[in-house]
Design goal:
Helix Hairpins; elongated; mainly alpha; 5 helices; 2 domains
């Protein structure tokens, strides 16, 4: 009975914290210290990760602005203007996808 109550309390405290937190409570203190050290190291700011995240943020903002401009001009712009805005929007989308991919690749390779 006591075990079930402790387990329920642990679940309430750790739900949403991910598998490392779940695994932590099943380990002895020495292993738990190693997991906490790894978690702390992963939380430290990685300059490359921060740079890639900032690039992704800028790229997605530009894509959003390009799409918004394209939407604003639907029905009021000439075909040439619309095609130009469509190209700008497509280029911004591609740059956003490239920035996301670079960030994902870094996260996978670096583990941060």
């Amino acid at each position: 009975m006591m075990y079930a109550r402790q387990r329920a309390q642990r679940h309430r405290l750790t739900s949403g914290l991910g598998p490392k937190a779940d695994a932590l409570f099943g380990m002895d203190v020495r292993c738990a210290t190693m997991v906490l050290t790894q978690c702390t190291a992963n939380l430290m700011i990685c300059d490359e990760k921060a740079r890639l995240a900032a690039e992704y943020n800028v790229a997605t903002a530009k894509f959003s602005e390009a799409v918004a401009e394209l939407q604003r001009t639907i029905g009021t712009s000439t075909k040439v203007e619309y095609e130009h805005l469509q190209r700008v929007s497509d280029e911004a989308r591609v740059k956003s996808e490239q920035a996301r991919l670079a960030l994902e690749q870094h996260l996978a390779a670096h583990g941060c």
